[in-house]
């Protein structure tokens, strides 16, 4: 047996953050929101998926943002996305050693690494 891939990444968020999550993940990052399975909906949170990319946000009653641990997301139109994030007040930090990598926080303070997709 061997692990062969990642099905999804789950990040935590505080209760009631679904609207902010949708604005950021679907609105800015362009990952469509998909309905959670009915048996999980009562837990809150939301899912964003454009297979094979799947980012799930789950409510954590003792929420603390992930400041170091982070997903690395491949991005088309990297410069345009970085500009859109900055224009909406999201601090975009360029990796000094690799300008094709930037860091940005989601609305809850979770760190994301955005990586320019190469052709």
TrEMBL record:
Residues 20-114 form the Glyoxalase-like domain. InterPro entries: Glyas_Bleomycin-R_OHBP_Dase, Glyoxalase_6. Pfam families: Glyoxalase_6. Signal peptide: none annotated. Coiled coil: none annotated. This is Glyoxalase. It comes from Glacieibacterium arshaanense.
């Amino acid at each position: 047996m061997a692990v062969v891939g990642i099905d999804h990444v789950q990040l935590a968020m505080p209760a009631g953050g679904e609207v902010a999550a949708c604005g950021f993940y679907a609105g800015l990052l362009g990952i469509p929101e998909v309905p959670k399975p009915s048996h999980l909906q009562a837990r809150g949170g939301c899912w964003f998926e454009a297979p094979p990319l799947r980012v799930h946000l789950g409510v954590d009653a003792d929420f603390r943002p992930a400041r170091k641990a982070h997903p690395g997301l491949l991005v088309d139109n990297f410069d345009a996305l970085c500009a859109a994030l900055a224009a909406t007040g999201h601090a975009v930090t360029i990796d000094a050693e690799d300008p094709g990598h930037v860091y940005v926080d989601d609305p809850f303070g979770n760190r994301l690494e955005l990586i320019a997709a190469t052709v």
